[in-house]
Amino acid sequence: MITRMIKRQWITGAICAISSAIVMLTGGAVRSQAQTITGAGSTFAFPAIAKWTPIYKHLHGININYQPIGSGAGISQYKAGTVDFGATDAPLSNSEMKRMPGPTLHIPIVAGAEVLSYNLPGVGAGLRLTGPIIADIFLGKIKSWNDPRIRKLNPYMKLPNLSIQVMHRSDASGTTFIFTHYLSAVSPAWARQVGAGKSVSWPVGQGGPGNPGVTNLIRHAPGGIGYIELAYALQNHLPYGPIENRSGNFVLPTTANNQAALSTGVARMEKDIRSLVVNAPGINSYPIVGYSYALIAEYPKNKVKARETVNFLRWAVSEGQHYAAELKYVPMAPAVVHLALENLNKVKD
Amino acid sequence: MEIEIRTVIQPKPEGAVVSAPEPAAQLAKIETENLCVYYGRVKALDDISIHIPDRRVIALIGPSGCGKSTFLRSLNRMNDLIDSARVSGRVLLDGQDIYAPRVDVHDLRKRVGMVFQRANPFPMSIFDNVAYGPRIHGERHRNRLEEIVERSLTQAALWDEVKDSLKRSAFNLSGGQQQRLCIARCLAVGPEVLLMDEPCSALDPNATYRIEELMNELKEQYCIVIVTHNMQQAARVSSLTGFFLKGELIEFGDTSRLFTSPSDQRTEDYIRGRFG
Amino acid sequence: MSSLANEELSGTNTKALRTHGRGELGDAIFRSLTMAFAGISVLLIVWIGLQMYHSSALSWARFGIHFLASTAWNAPQHDYGALTFIYGTIVSSALALLIAVPIGIGAAIFLAEIAPGWISAPFSFLIELLAAVPSVIFGLWGFMVLCPWLNGPVADWIIAHFGSIPIFAGPAYLTNMLAAGVVLGLMVLPFVTAVSRDVIRAVPRSQGEAAYGLGATRWETIHSVVLRYGRSGIVGAIILGLGRAVGETMAVAMVVGNNTNISTSLFAPGYTMPSLLANQFNEAFDRPLQRSALLEIALILFIITLVVNILARLLLWMVSRNMNETGLSAGYHVSRFQRISSLADDLVRQACLPLLACGYVFWLFLGFQRSGINSLTNPIIWIVPVIAGWIGWQNLLRSTRLWGRWRRIKNILTLAICAFLTFVSVAVLLIIFGYVVIQGAHAITPTFFTQAQKSPDDPTGGVLNGILGTVVLVIIASVIGLPIGILGGIYLAEYGRGRIKAFVRFAADVLNGIPSVVIGTFVYAIMVLPMKRFSALSGGVALAIMLIPTVMRTTEELLKLVPDSLREGSLGLGASQSRTVIRVVLPAARAGIITGIMLAIARIAGETAPLLFTAFGNDVASTKLLHPISSMTMLIYHYSMSPYNIWITQAWGSALVLLLMVFLVSLAARLVTRNQIRMV
User: Is the CB of residue C649 less than 8 Å from the CB of residue C660?
Assistant: First the structure.
């Protein structure tokens, strides 16, 4: 008798658990009817995308699930077919293109600048740096903030006797790709010893996941310096300074300066959308700028999802630019937007 | 670890001190006065007063749970290890109260050694087992330790069997050998009294015989108190026997007399096998 | 059973006995079912091993054995080697043990031998709670609180005084090997404490009595008898703890610094094998060689798990044998182990001490060269003379009559240290808990529970996506894992015999020890890739794989507690064995099994690493099976690594919710089962 009662309890318990599970899973599916697009990759573009998603949901009722896992992972997961679009600031190389399962389209979605943010107690914004000095800091040759070379550039700043804590990415990153291409362009030593890529063998420093991780490291480490997208520095009130450009001027990453740099690359992008624009010529050009691209398949398997994705990206490169500009991303030149829309039209959905 | 109620001596109207039949012959080695032991609220020993002479084997018999082991353990304060145990009355070793406030219990246990029901050698070599006691009491000199080990093992009649394997684990010995090793370990710290808690109950007859023989030799130098379930053994080895029942010492006296003509009916019932 | 008697009795005129009854068929089916489900753990181990082996073939073919000796990890050059990560794993784990072992054993001694019950019980519980804190919360606390503290005052002090020793050389970095070691140490601590406490408690009373009977003080008894007797068990506990430290992922990834260079200084960043996997696995799909190299590292982790488990089980098994057979027949093992350890003792005495002395003199010399006579004002320099003085003092006292008093003082001193160490470990828990409560309380707003993630500058965002995700993942894992675990446990307790049973149990133990990040890579390979999508389902499967062994072993242990008389009673009434198990044995152990399951679920709810490659995360509050899904733990990880204050606060808030859940479950389990289950 008692065992039977106990048994009944077991059974009812099990039924309750399973039925509630079913209700959860199916009922949940019914409730969130809205279509969801999954994207992943670049953290460079993440603040912009994070800004877009609620607005786009509001306008078109489409959920965008964007996971900022780094450009390398974005490319990887795009290739594996686990996401609807990948996002990367490092365009695919030719060999990478060949390894993709099908023809892949690059859609530039935002353009932005990278700054070298630092955490120096008692030192405000405006620390001037040159390409070779940045390279030597990241090579581990300059170890202290009161190194004569830095002092010489910043005679009016009270630089502390603090060791430099270099911060870099722990994931494969388009931000790193742009930054290391810049370093390779300005420092032969860097080009020889380390080179450029999404993930390189860092001689010194601490790795953080994504732009947010690096920003976070800088915030917490006195003496820290790292390369992050401008939006992160602004959102977190981290100081940065002017960097010497190709013409020998120290320039800040203002929208005008960034646009000046990016405009030098438009012609090349019309030939190959994957062109880089680091260390651009021009007296006002800010030297570390780049695009973030969405990667989508030309012949998508899931047409419905692909259509929604294309719609979203179309919105992003046109109306979306306005919202991105609020975060000090650089509005893309009309020619580049045109290129992006052209590419979007190629998708066979 | 101090026990507060130990100095409270309860008046005992009817109980005369049950003492050995030859009190004049020698001074008591151990003497208890109105010893009571409580485990929490349970009274495990009730008002035990006894004189234990030196250089004798004293056997304590009685049914399980009668308090004889508790009594034995109160003689070297092993009961201190049980949180709920309390003691009242006095236990005198050579006339000094071992429950007095400033007594060093570690030194006391060195003087009053104990052998347990099951052989409990340490997980060390035979040599280290025997040398353990002297070492903790401050002896570090290798030669002197070797001397002590040899002497103790010889006394415990184990030396000839193990002298070539002193470095081997004590666990390799047989049960009887292990028990003799434990006796040797006890002897190594130079005790005056040996308390043995059913030392043979886990041994076969042959090993039991060897231990009993050993006791006979040891009593020339030591005062030995043995708790046993085996009445034949008590009759064989002891010169005095005490009978415990329900925490009381019913009868204490000359072994041969106690076994042939007990003065108390309950003792007679027990040794005739009517209960227990 | 009935068929056996059939032949003889069928000829008589009594009522014929039925041959094969219904019950028997049911029995056979039930038994095969339990066996099959128990076999799943074996299957999983083999499958995981083969998967890793297979996937790492490319890297093995390219680098061969050189992979283990190379420090390169250079994606642009396609050159990979594991040494940096092996080194980092060894150093951080060694540091962890250096911290956890003395504190853990000290606390275990206090809890098992010294403390009265009313202190021991709650303190044991608190220390075990520390084991229930999810890894990612250790990471959060480690990064936000511990790292700045270590990088600030602690590093300043140590570098000022010990800077000349290479491992303490400056400059100090925010995230570094030391932080990883400390965090790992805190995570291993409760484990070492709990297992050591059990081992010490299992030492027979007679051992302690023998020592007390010879006049040993309490400390002498514990030190030279109790610990010695339980030594192999404690070493086993330490090795199991080491296994945990080696496989720990998230907390380490958050504080270790993630730099691929080997550095001798503990204040410099480093890298460990699991944190490399967590950081790079998701991005390596399009680089076959890097992926293969990563999976070879996973394979190394898998092999380490195997070896560690074999070693630890062997040692713990030796202890249990000892205790069962009162040390008579186990003598051989003990003495062999002892011979090795006494050899080690001799080595330490004869080789290490002179070496240390030389090192000390050399260090003195260095200090003298640097700062002359001033170096003597450094308090650290006096450590060695003080120790030498201590030993000399002891030898002096030994021959005097003060020795007895000195022994008593030493006794009290050492016991006080043990008590202190216990308070330290409890204090660590309280500090972590305090931070989580204070920081997390700010985050608890109405929208915290009702809204999904919003952009980082929007304070009305919440963690609904994480909460829902954790619930869904746990439900999926339970639906898959619980039947397998419970039936497998029934097999182990009721049907298993001999070697097969031992093997199944061992497989479950190994499965339990496999780093969660490795399971993540496995599920990615068998589910995410073929399905071409991250999904709640694959996340649930990964968690289920972690749930199975725990539930299996808990069920087994609790069924074994059910007295045989109950089984005999039922069997004696003619019930079949399966009926007996289902109707009588399981209900008898029900309360315990349910709480064991709750604890196991609480544990997987705190998992992060495997979800990164399977459930992936979702900004939207989704409950769909085949879509990516978020979890509390992934949110904590992403939020705490972000620079946004709102998100960081929400990370603390999520940590608070998660901790409260885990603690409540643990507390309930404690009240229901009264120590039948250990939470560690």
Answer: no
Peptide bond into B191 cis (omega under 30): no
Q: In whole angstroms, give the CA distance from residue C665 to residue C474.
A: 14
Q: What is the mean pLDDT of residues C401-414?
A: 87
Domain enclosing residue A207, as ranges: 113-271
Q: Based on the fold, state whether residues A238 and A195 are members of the same structural domain.
A: yes
* Chain C residues inside the 8 Å CB shell of A142: none
**Residue B130 amino acid letter:** V
Residue at a domain's end among A211, A239, A271: A271
Contacts of C235 (CB under 8 A, 6+ apart): C315
Nearest to B138 among C217, C327, C403 (CB): C403
C508, with CB counted inside 10 A (0-12, 13-18, 19+), is buried
Provide the terminal-to-terminal Cα distance of chain B, rounded to the nearest Å.
35
| CA-based torsion, B109, B114, B120, B123: positive or negative | positive
Task: Examine the domain organization and report whether A148 and A47 are in the same domain.
Answer: no
> Are both A133 and A264 inside the same structural domain?
yes
pLDDT in tens, A143-200: 999 999 999 999 999 999 999 999 999 999 999 999 999 999 999 999 999 999 999 9
CA A203 to chain CA centroid, nearest Å:
22
* Same-domain pairing of A76 and A145: no
CATH code for position A188? 3.40.190.10
Q: Is residue A53 part of a domain?
A: yes
- For chain C, give every domain's residue range: 83-324+400-439, 444-680
Q: Whole-angstrom Cα distance, residue C294 to residue C271?
A: 13
Q: Position of tokens 């309860």?
A: B10
Which of B106, B129, B196 has the most C C-beta neighbours within 10 Å, making it the best mutation to test the interface with C? B106
Unique residue bearing structure tokens 């600030």: C152
* Global confidence as pTM: 0.85
Q: Which residue has the tokens 């929490």?
A: B40
C537 interfacial to chain A (CB closer than 8 Å): no
Distance from CA of B215 to the nearest CA of C (A): 19
Q: In angstroms, rounded to a whole number, what is the distance separating the alpha carbons of residues C297 and C293?
A: 6
Q: What is the pLDDT of residue C334?
A: 43
Question: What pLDDT does residue C75 have?
Answer: 83
Q: Which residues of chain A neighbour C287 with C-beta distances below 8 Å?
A: 76
Q: For residue B37, what are the CA distances in angstroms to B40, B61, C17, C215? A: 9, 18, 62, 21
**A220 and A184 assigned to the same domain:** yes
Within a domain: A29? no
A166 with A255, same domain: the answer is: yes
Residue A311 included in any domain? yes
Domain assignment present for A127? yes
Does ipTM surpass 0.90 in this model? no
**pLDDT above 90 for C537:** yes
pLDDT in tens, A7-63: 555 555 555 555 555 555 544 444 444 688 999 999 999 999 999 999 999 999 999
Q: Is C83-324+400-439's fold the same as C444-680's?
A: yes
User: Domain tally for chain A?
Assistant: 2
In the numeric block, which tokens belong to residue C482?
């619980």
Instruction: Compute CA distances C531 → B185, C56, C256, C608, whole Å.
Output: 71, 22, 34, 21
Instruction: DSSP letter for A348, please.
Output: -
The architecture CATH gives domain C444-680: Orthogonal Bundle (1.10)
Spatial distance between the Cα atoms of C453 and A63, rounded to a whole number of angstroms: 12
Of the candidates A65, A76, A201, which has its C-beta nearest C260's C-beta? A201
For range C438-458, the mean pLDDT:
88
Domain C83-324+400-439 falls in which CATH fold? MetI-like fold (1.10.3720)
**CB contact, 8 Å: C614 with chain A?**
no
* Residues A193 and A301 placed together within one structural domain of the fold: no
Q: Given A271, A303, A336, which residue is the final one in a domain?
A: A271
Is residue C10 within 8 Å of residue C16, measured between CB atoms? yes
Q: Is A57 found in the same domain as A201?
A: no
